[in-house]
């Protein structure tokens, strides 16, 4: 009987989707036409607009129309990007992006060009820092260039927020979501925006959004933990976002103010334990959870000024201040306060060449800590006497950065474009004296200033074979410091002694590929290779140099390589099909023995493929069916009969199918989605990393989400 009810719900859902299918038809067509234009302007993380045909590396644009479709089948921004962008790891189905990467490297996240990634101490919440309600588009720029910096040449994700409208406009959006097995346990969302431009050309936008998420359920209808691990989860979470913008247009210049505040709290109700029969994490409703809730809070203020004619050049100035708080259920909290300034000029030398140059200055103060029991003595019976004290594990670090840069483009011939750039990365990290905590005992550590600097170059060529086809090749360098968690377990007494053990990571990144686009067919193919010196990774491989392991991290040279391909085809006016595939692999080198060994699951994602089909019923109605596949990966031998080393357990792949439909009426738009349409029973990749680790205590596996239904209504007026 229960099975029949589930099938009935699924049948009704599909019939509802087919009956109410939707009117993103026109929007989808417009998005398709835009993406088919290879000369389209790309508003990147750089200060000035750039044509796609001038870009010698892979760029992927997620439009507002794409986001509108994905928002009913994805629970956060990380999941949306994973569904849409090849090369990005599958969703972790938690608050954290630990284990997610681009092409084996970390992604740097920006909002309107302002860095929000916590680089001194990776909090893993970079993509859990903004509501999709305020996003206009997302640009993913893979590799590095002189204007961006801040990375190891994995990718830059630049989230672009919505802009004020020309005429006064309000938009209301409400939504409800629930798992098919527990329709009464629903989550709700609401968003309200006000936007317009005054007669004096002052644009304004205010967006208020909130979400009250319901509990999570697996494919068997069992309630999942609100957070499957101590990184935080998406169950029963309260989320709100406030975005405010002012943009003043002058004759040849613009002045803009952005203020943004985001907060999410994952409310936990029960303790977790491991089911001994299947090894999966589950909730124990007999034991209430006592402790802090995982949370993320981000506040940002940004002021920008653009001048179109400053001594016959274009000028762009930007200043920002931001503060990030990342809280964990252990009561540990990362607090990162950042400010910075960027100045850039664009000199159009002639109609075939231009030069962008400038500098970037930034300051970042980061600390992580929590209350710990510190041993203060021994009583008369020989029992330890402890006192609770706040102890920092990463203590009041201050990074100061000053990086000049220059980027040059030249239209060498009508078909050949050259890009060359230079950036001087120059940063230092002040580490104060601090106390190291270990098993209740404190030991003094002497601070120092870590200094890093290196000139970086990038070079690229784009050749236009035909009106619809570009081939490109590029070489770029990345340079960045590590997550400073290694200071927590520094084995020596001073930072000066330890400095050589925490070098900056240097990346040489190579990419070549092809882009094709005409009225009905768009495609891309790219090959990439990274040669990395002093890469950082959680590493317990038996071939790793164990003597260099500090705080679970081993510094080693690395090689990463792979391929990506995309294809979109407008079969008829009614039917559009698309697919993408990405694959990467990598090895690390033991510097003492010279032996190479496969990288583990924290850095390498198995083959990933996606396919979708859009059907347009008429001028109003359309339907999308999409599937995302993740393959198997088994590259490591068992450490012993007891199991594998940390993060090296084999991956079992899975396929998730989603359905999205929308329907436009005179009263607004309805969007309906079914996430995990086939109710696949699976475990996310991050759950499988340690499923067969030699220490059973750390085999923290958890199930993925079951079938989820979502309905959203929006109206502009």
UniProtKB/TrEMBL annotation:
Domain called TonB-dependent receptor-like beta-barrel: residue spans? 293-677
Q: Does the keyword Nucleus apply?
A: no
Q: How does it sit in the membrane?
A: Multi-pass membrane protein
InterPro entries attached to this UniProt entry: Beta-barrel_TonB (IPR000531), Beta-barrel_TonB_sf (IPR036942), Plug_dom (IPR012910), Plug_dom_sf (IPR037066), TonB-dep_rcpt-like (IPR039426)
Show which residues constitute the signal peptide: 1-25
The places in or outside the cell where this protein is found are:
Cell outer membrane
Reply yes or no: does the keyword Transport apply: yes
Per UniProt, the keywords (alphabetical) are: Cell outer membrane, Membrane, Signal, TonB box, Transmembrane, Transmembrane beta strand, Transport
| Assigned protein family | Belongs to the TonB-dependent receptor family.
Task: Write the protein's name.
Answer: Ligand-gated channel protein
Q: Which organism is it from?
A: Shewanella sairae
Q: What is the lineage of its organism?
A: Bacteria, Pseudomonadati, Pseudomonadota, Gammaproteobacteria, Alteromonadales
- Gene encoding this polypeptide? iutA
